[in-house]
Amino acid sequence: MEEFKHLFEMLPKVQGYIYPNEVDLNWSILIVLYPYITGLVAGAFILASLERVFKVKVLKPTYHLALLTALSFLLVATMPLINHLGKPMRAYEIMITPHLTSAMAIFGFVYLWYLMVVLLLEIWFDYRKDVIIWSNQSTGIKKIIYKIISLGTTDISPKAVALDNKMGYIITIIGIPSAFLLHGYVGFIFGSIKANPWWSTVLMPVIFLFSAMVSGIALVMLIYMIVTRIRKMKIDMACLDTIAKYLFYILILDFTLESLDQIHRIYVSEESFEIINLLISGKLYITLFIFQVIMGTLIPLFTLGTLQFYKPADKTRKTIYLIISSLVLFGIFFMRWNVVIGGQLFSKSFYGFTSFKISLIGTEGYLMAFIWLVIPLAILSFLLWLLPPWKKQEEEYDPEST
After folding, report:
1. What is the count of structural domains for the chain?
2. Does 242 fall in a domain?
3. Is residue 317 part of a domain?
4. Could you tell me if residue 326 is inside a domain?
5. 8 A C-beta contact, residue 200 and residue 194
6. Beta-bridge partner residues of 346
7. Bigger pLDDT: 97 or 212?
8. For 259-289, b where at least 16 C-beta lie within 10 A, e where not — what string?
9. Nearest to residue 381, comparing CAs of 227, 233, 231, 236?
């Protein structure tokens, strides 16, 4: 009788019919982090390409910072996914036994291409001359690391440096479509799951791509302000205003695409419309409308739009940019949350909902997710110590060195 009593207590909490194998969610917060981190990588690289390829020279103070940020997060991008696997030590098999019809298998090669060919090579060509100079000026562990990074090269003649710049430019051009491919594929995977109406839309790859650019630009803006403040240096407001302008434009496109997707769902009103309507007005109401739409999109849009016409004092703008970039990152995270978690909350029968609970500690807990967000920042701190962009800029603009 006790078992039946417990069953009757649970019945009021069940909405509609749920298949027995749909009680637990297969993808948890680590799978939310996976597209979130790859999006930060793509967005940061796109911001760097604005200066290198499209000659937006006012963004020079954030160019190398954006590249190092992209590399830091790219090194950790696959770790939440591997952590989620039941046997993570077998993850390498996706590379040595590839299945070319699998989107996940293809991503392994895209990831390695972007890491080894694009980011690492571009950073190496950008820093090669500086690393050679720094290796001669440094002692101890730094000198050893610089010697290793330089790969034995010692030529810093104008001809060699010109070749470095040319190669870096070519790699950046190659890297732009590679960045699109790196993150667009994540939206492709979700959008190609036809059995799930919450994911199945041709706009999913494009939405993921634009939201990635938004989050990456916001991240570089936030890191630039924090690092400059820690160094007790003056923030380049022209650079910050330009970043905010591009963030505003891309945020408009991102919001427009997501709105278009929702309008299309409402207009078509397929058989899944009722369950999706109940989903977004119920279980996803706070994370979708409050966190993603209002806090992460509308407030930044309205604020950045206002700043295009009215510019308060520099100190006030710095505070606004700090808050807005944080809100954007917060909103994009919950965009990923709403896609990954939201698509698993309703039954395949379209008649019921399941629940999602997450613990503080464990392989799928909040603490583990926090660790995978902190590790890229720790890597970035090391890279900024080893390859300081501001030292490179000081050398570039030093009249005595030209």
Report:
1. 1
2. no
3. no
4. no
5. yes
6. 353
7. 212
8. eebeeebeeeeeebeebbebbbeebbeebbe
9. 227
Percent of the chain with pLDDT over 90: 46
The pair of structure tokens assigned to 271 is: 């058989």
| Model-wide pTM > 0.85 | yes
Closest Cα to residue 149, out of 386, 361, 355, 358? Answer: 386
The residue written with tokens 């803006």 in the block is 221
Orientation of helix 204-230 relative to helix 237-268, angle to 10°: 160
- Contact between residue 292 and residue 331 where contact means Cβ atoms under 8 Å apart: yes
Q: Are 372 and 76 in contact (CB under 8 A)?
A: yes
DSSP letter at 353 equals B
**Separation in Å, CA 230 to CA 223, 225, 226, 233, 299:** 10, 9, 6, 8, 27
> In degrees, to the nearest 5, what angle opens at C-alpha 357 toward C-alphas 353 and 358?
150
Closest CA to 68 of 108, 39, 40: 40
**The two structure tokens encoding residue 331:** 């909103």
CA distance 227 to 68: 13
pLDDT on residue 397: 44
In the prediction, which pLDDT does 152 show? 85
Locus of tokens 């240096």:
233
Answer yes or no: is 94 within a domain: yes
State how far the Cα of 99 lies from the Cα of 106, in Å rounded to an integer: 8
Task: Decide: residue 321, CB within 10 A, 0-12 exposed, 13-18 middle, 19+ buried.
Answer: buried
Q: For residues 52 and 329, what is the distance between their CA atoms, to the nearest angstrom?
A: 25
* Token duo for residue 25: 């969610």
What confidence score (pLDDT) does residue 262 get?
Answer: 84
- Using DSSP, state whether 76 is helix, strand or coil: coil
Question: Which pLDDT score is estimated for 356?
Answer: 73
Q: Domain range holding 166?
A: 31-192+360-388
- Residue-wise pLDDT tens digits, 177-206: 888 877 777 777 776 666 677 777 778 888
User: Six-digit token pair at 297?
Assistant: 């999109």
Query: Cα separation of 139 and 147, whole Å?
Result: 11
CA-nearest of 385, 387, 390, 383 to 133 is 387
Residue type, 243: I
Identity (one letter) of the amino acid at 401? S
Distance between CA atoms of residues 384 and 389, nearest Å: 7
C-alpha 391 chain-centroid distance: 27
